[in-house]
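dumping this here so i dont lose it
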């Protein structure tokens, strides 16, 4: 149980509690979209990424969606964001998050990705070269380019 230490009148910041208990985790995928303001709906479960080779047995018991990535790519695109209760947690930037969604496209709702990439492409401060760089590192560049051709 994640919240056994809470008093009845306290509101739990689940994201912050998980981050405190498992400091290596980085919020990713739909959870990152939500933290970054690109989600069309709240995530059903929290998604997080850990380095390959890290034990995830305790995390799996907590009904979290766990993704693993090579250690050399683990912190690529890392940033901190405030939760809805104002606590800082680790998450990925929008470029990295979009690439993660492409990588996991067969396991996720494609509408979440489509909504987020459309929002991103409407931003005046979008960084397409960085997005393509991330896609190349994660070997999904051709898939990303197909989306960009249609949407740009």
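and the seq i came up w/
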């Amino acid at each position: 149980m994640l919240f056994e230490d809470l008093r009845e009148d306290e509101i739990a910041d689940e994201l912050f509690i998980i981050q405190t208990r498992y400091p290596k985790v980085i919020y990713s995928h739909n959870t990152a979209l939500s933290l970054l303001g690109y989600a069309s709906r709240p995530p059903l479960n929290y998604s997080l990424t850990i380095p390959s080779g890290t034990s995830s047995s305790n995390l799996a018991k907590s009904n979290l969606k766990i993704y693993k990535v090579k250690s050399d790519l683990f912190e690529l695109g890392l940033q901190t964001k405030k939760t809805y209760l104002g606590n800082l947690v680790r998450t990925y930037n929008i470029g990295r998050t979009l690439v993660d969604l492409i990588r996991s496209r067969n396991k996720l709702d494609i509408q979440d990705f489509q909504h987020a990439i459309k929002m991103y492409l409407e931003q005046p401060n979008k960084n397409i070269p960085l997005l393509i760089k991330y896609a190349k590192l994660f070997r999904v560049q051709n898939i990303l380019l197909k989306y960009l051709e249609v949407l740009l």
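The mean pLDDT is 89.
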